[in-house]
Amino acid sequence: MKSIILLIATIAVATAADFQIDSQKSWLKLDCKATGHSWTAQVKEFSASISGDAATLAPSAANIAWKFSDIDSDEADRDEKMLDWLDASSHPTGSWKMTKQWKDSSGQQYVSGPLTIAGVSKEITIPVKAEKTDKGMSLDGDVWIDTTDFSLPIIRMVVLTVNPKVNIRFHLEGDVR
What we know:
Elements: H1 2-15, E1 16-21, E2 27-34, E3 37-43, E4 46-53, E5 59-67, E6 71-72, H2 76-85, E7 93-97, E8 100-103, E9 109-117, E10 120-132, E11 136-146, E12 156-157, E13 160-161, E14 165-176
Antiparallel strand pairs: 1-4, 1-14, 2-3, 2-14, 3-6, 4-5, 5-7, 7-9, 8-9, 9-10, 10-11, 11-14, 12-13
């Protein structure tokens, strides 16, 4: 009986893994829209970690954190206004931390946890896709948020309105540590 328990414990430990995120292969992007045009901003630097079951690709923990000053929309004036809008001088960072994960009856995997923007945290659920790579795994997610849920005002200037709904997309790729 002790041998069976030891074998089960060994198998459980062997499949649990931490993944070293590869910053060259990973990205975090924001798709934004305003009257008459749209743009994609990229978070140039961010930190991320994933732990999970290497065999089933079920994440057990995941975190992403970034500085708002690292968001680049390829237009410096827009980036400066965005930092003011986010009150980045008072709340310079944003983050998301997974608190649970599950699969629905069709096999779609979901993760949820608090997203913090401008000092306000809100629980969000993200459909994700986990895949095995040569040395580890990748995790892709895509979710729409409404920035007014984070107490951020809708930006209006004459006839221009920035849509408060923003699409957050990410690709995290890492090797087993």
